[in-house]
Each structure stands twice: as C-alpha cells, then as structure tokens.
C-alpha cells in the first residue's frame, strides 16, 4: 500500500548541506499501523512530509496505492492529500470556532459533498471514536484526549487509504495517550486503512504492528512486540 525506496532528502548544497534522509526504505500494508521512532532530528517529520506529498525528495521514490508521487504535479498531489490521506497532528489542528461535527466535516466540505451527507458522516465518525454526545461542542470545551479523537475522526472523513500522524500523543498524559493510540489501532483495523505514526514513546510502540527506527537519516526495521 505504501512503498518507500531509497528515499533521500537534503537541504542546502555543498559542504553545508543537511542530509535529513540518507536512503530510507520500507513498506506498509493495508490495515497495518507502522510506528516511526527516533530521536528529535532523526528525520521522522521529514519522512512523513515526503510520504504525505507535502514535500518532494532529493532522490528515491514514494508510492501510494501503486502511484508514484513523483509522477504527480502540484494539483495531483493536492488531490491526493485531500482524497486519499488523512493527517493527525500533535497540536490537534482543530478550528476553535467550529463544533466537533463541523471540524470533522471540513475535509468533506473541501470535496463539496452535500451538507446532509457531511452531517451524517461526521456524526457517524464521532460515534466511531466515542464522542457521539459531543458533536455540538467546540474544541475549547473538550479535553486534550477528546480533541485528538475529533482529529482522528476528521482524518477519516474522506475515507483515506493512509493516515499520517506526527507525535499524536505528544501533548497528552501517558494514560490518555495510550487510549488515543489504542483507538487509532482499532480504527486502522476496522476501517482497513494504513497508518504511519511518528512517536518516541516506547509504550505506544507496543501497539504498532511494526516499528521502523530512524537513525541519522537511515532506517532499521523490527517487529513490534
């Protein structure tokens, strides 16, 4: 489903160039949660940006559902991000003035889905993440864990093939973070999507199907326990 081959990304040129990725290769199957671990500066966010079509590599390739991202122009990458990829951020990324249901509906609004269809799916997704009774609340009225659940529901809005999550539990306490990761794993399996999750928390890696470690821009892969 996701194929990364000899992926490289450098910033700058000459002796001052920074080589963030130095030949990263791995694959992730449908319905699988892959954890990316590594110290700060190891290249996790750079890798997620490349897989998500937010950046272009210096070398190597990324395929999503058989499509080489390098073959897409900017409009093609935009459509890919809108229709096939859901993003979950450490800071939740919710719009404060919108309700939980309205936040979940934003990606569907970008696809110009009818209002009734948006509303029905938003409520169904909030029920999926355990927030059926919170559809009318705004982010400021929700706990951090609840906000991240809304963010996961929003990531699923357009039935993506891939969910990309960059330190999704970084602003949560350990117990809440684990419950969010357990939810994400359950959603991945029930919805049949692939998830790439950057995290540095060993407890959360236990919930992954596989772990890919980044060190100095290179990867080593290990089976999750």
Briefly characterize the structure.
This protein is α/β, with parallel strands linked by helices and 225 residues long. The chain contains 7 helices and 10 strands.
Structural overview:
It comes from Kitasatospora indigofera. Keywords: ATP-binding, Nucleotide-binding, Transport. This is ABC transporter ATP-binding protein. One of its GO terms (molecular function) is transmembrane transporter activity. The protein contains seven helices and ten strands. The protein is α/β, with parallel strands linked by helices and 225 residues long. The chain has a single domain, classed as Rossmann fold (3-Layer(aba) Sandwich), CATH 3.40.50. A six-stranded mixed sheet has the order 6-7-8-3-9-10. It has a four-stranded antiparallel sheet with strand order 2-1-4-5, with helices on one face. Helix 3 packs across helix 4 and helix 5 runs parallel beside helix 6. The chain is globular, with a radius of gyration of 17 Å. The protein starts with a strand and ends with a strand. The mean pLDDT is 91.
Please outline the helices and strands.
Blueprint: E1 2-11, E2 18-28, E3 33-37, H1 44-51, E4 59-64, E5 67-68, H2 74-83, E6 85-89, H3 100-110, H4 115-128, H5 144-155, E7 162-166, H6 174-191, E8 194-198, H7 202-205, E9 210-215, E10 218-223
Parallel strand pairs: 3-8, 3-9, 6-7, 7-8
Antiparallel strand pairs: 1-2, 1-4, 4-5, 9-10
Helix pairs in contact: 3-4, 3-5, 4-5, 5-6
GO molecular function, one term: ATP hydrolysis activity
InterPro entries: AAA+_ATPase, ABC_transporter-like_ATP-bd, ABC_transporter-like_CS, ABC_transpr_LolD-like, MacB-like_ATP-bd, P-loop_NTPase
Protein name: ABC transporter ATP-binding protein
